[in-house]
Amino acid sequence: MRQKQSSTTAEGxxxxxxxxxxxxxxxxxxxxxxxxxxxxxxxFFLSKLIIDSACTDxxxxxxxxxxxxxxxxxxxxxxxx
Length: 81
Known about the structure:
extended
């Protein structure tokens, strides 16, 4: 690591903490008000855009996960029969 340059691991962890801190208070698992200042703006906004576009609704993720589990279970049951 060069002098006066942050490590990519440290920057990545700050990015994750900054994105988590930007979530609504009832949904976030941690709050780090300093993390946002440690991440370049373009990385924060691009990463948040990608994450938000993939996870627009937590309930849709839960539904797709449970229906996927049901399909797997039925496939296993049909193989045994």
